[in-house]
Amino acid sequence: MEITSVQSKSDTVNTSLFDKRENIEKLHRTRNLLRKVQFIYDLPTRLNKCIKTEAYGDAVRFFTGAKPIFEAYGDTSFQDCKRASEEAMDLVIQHLQAKLYSDSEPIEARAEAVVLLKQLNFPVDNLKSNLLEKLEDCLLNLQNEPTQASISDISKTFRAYLIIFPDSERRLIELAQALFSNRYETIRESLKKRIPSTDLLAMLRSLWEDATAIDEVIPEAALPAFSLETTRDIIRQHIATAFLHLQNEISDTLVRTHSTSNEKLEESQLQTAMDTSKIKVSQGCIDLLQEFHHLIDGNAELLVKLRDLIIDWVQEGFQDFFQKLDRHFHVLSGRSKSFPKESSALDSVQIDKVPTVLVLMLAQLCVYIEQTTIPKVTEELASSFSGGGSRSYEYGPPFVPGEICRLYRSSGEKFLHHYINMKTQKISKLLNKRFTTPVWIKHKEPREVNMFVDLLLFEFNGVVSEVKQILPGQIRRHRHSDSTGSTTSSRSNPMREDMLNRSNTHRARSQFLENHLAKLFEQKMEIFTKVEYTQESVISTVFKLCLKSLQEFVRLQTFNRSGFQQIQLDMEFLKSSLKEFVDDEAAISFLLKEVNSAAHERCLDPIPLEPPILDKLINAKLAKIKEQNPNMQ
């Protein structure tokens, strides 16, 4: 009963308030309409305020909100408001276009301008090509000095353009690829100058990070894959360039020493040059290994991906470097022609005028590389550059030290023989001139040792000076109690005084017979032994070859008695002089006897000088030499 009463009273109240509620709702709708009308009337003023404060986003929002009203009632009392609003929006569009084309505006502001223009139904597609050209110019400027901020801007730009122009993805991919291609090309150009591996890695790591950042926006550009492949080529080029620079430095060190080869060499200058060349080769290789170690040291994603390849490239690089350096040594020695790429290193050395000492230095340098440098490099490679394995199995190991050692052992022997041949040929020309110039059949009685002996000894001294500064081992210096310089066989004694009573003809025949018999026993003597990398071996070989040439030149002439005696005098003086330089006296004495025997055989009247006369002439020569060189012992 009570519930029914409450419900009845509530219905009564609702009925009494119904009319009032409808009036309230009607008034509320009228108020909203008035607000909208007021908004329309106030819109031109609002838009002008937005233009002054550059609140173009609010201006577009206000205008697009009022646009349905203008479309419905624009020809009524709102006509003036519509016209004023459209004029204001024309200014807004102009400002948005200016912002869009302004290079000073940040990319976010320019992207917002495009979005606002599209909301106003302004045709922006025709602006796409122009904007992309501006983007291309912007990227061109940024690639010269790439910074993290620049890459951030580029990433935002690409993202904005993809939103604004969804169909521009292909062009953006081309721009991104061109950007990184140009930046990598800049690094390639820098490789022409030798740059530290740490600097190269810093540039490559920065580019890798940039490519990864852009890849998050445009993965279709495949920039990480492109960067990895390009980085691979650049590091390989960097390694090859480093080896080439080292080869050129070694070549320059050798060539620079002999660029003034015609000038007199100071004492120990050659030894200093030899030591410098050894240091350049050995330390240069160690320095390269330390440089290359930076390429595999670290946990950077880029280095981890390329580590095995880098190890193989370093090992291959040393194999190729030593092979090319060997070929370059042959070019420097004049034994082979230079390649176009190598000609620059040989500008100061004419191949047809290669200094003989350079060839000897190359021979000794080959021994040093074989015995010292290769073992050091092999040890370092095994310690720091083990692994690799990216090479195909059929190509074998990248670095084969045994093969390189055999190569330099062979080349060293060739250079050593080449040096000996060059020296021998030069002295042989002197001998040829000596024996083809005079008329031996009309030679006058000998009065002194011929000056050609001085020239010959001068050349021999040059060989000794070069060899003792470059090759190991000391030359044994002989000291004789006999001050005359002649040998015991040439001294006078009672037995020889008795022999002077014999006829000259009988003595000549007896001497010939004695020489012939002695020759039969001496033929078992091994004159030319294997050439070794020692001072004694090289000097002895040069002397022996020259004396052998001397013997052949003598055999081509015909002598009278005086000519034969001149040969006898010259050879006797050489015998005592050459003992100062070589240990193999027996071989030298044998060859000098061979020269005398050849002159004896080619003489019409082979009567030798008497020992007292021979001693007198030799002593006179020694006295003259001492007078010219007072300090000589």
Task: Write up this protein.
- It comes from Urochloa decumbens.
- Belongs to the VPS51 family.
- It is found in: Golgi apparatus, trans-Golgi network.
- This is Vacuolar protein sorting-associated protein 51 homolog.
- Residues 483-492 have a biased composition (Low complexity).
- By secondary structure, the chain is mainly α.
- The protein is 73% helix and 0% strand.
- It is built from 20 helices and no strands.
- It has helices at residues 2-53, 56-73, 79-101, 107-119, 128-144, 148-164, 169-190, 197-215, 223-257, 269-296, 301-333, 356-384, 401-436, 451-470, 494-499, 504-522, 535-555, 561-578, 585-601, 611-628.
- Helix 7 (169-190) runs antiparallel to helix 8 (197-215), helix 7 packs parallel to helix 9 and helix 13 runs antiparallel to helix 14 (451-470).
- The longest helix is centred in the first third of the chain and has 52 residues, at 2-53.
- It starts with a helix and ends in a 5-residue tail after the last helix.
- Mean pLDDT is 79; it is low at 343-349, 475-510 and 516-525.
Distance between the termini: 158 Å
How does the major sheet shape up?
Answer: none
Number of helices: 20
Taking Cα atoms only, what radius of gyration do you get, to the nearest Å?
50 Å
Helix content: over 70%
Percentage beta strand: under 5%
Uncertain residue segments: 343-349, 475-510, 516-525
- What is the H-and-E element order? HHHHHHHHHHHHHHHHHHHH
**Class of secondary structure makeup:** mainly alpha
Q: What gross morphology would you assign? A: rod-shaped
Overall average residue pLDDT: 79
Number of E-state strands? 0
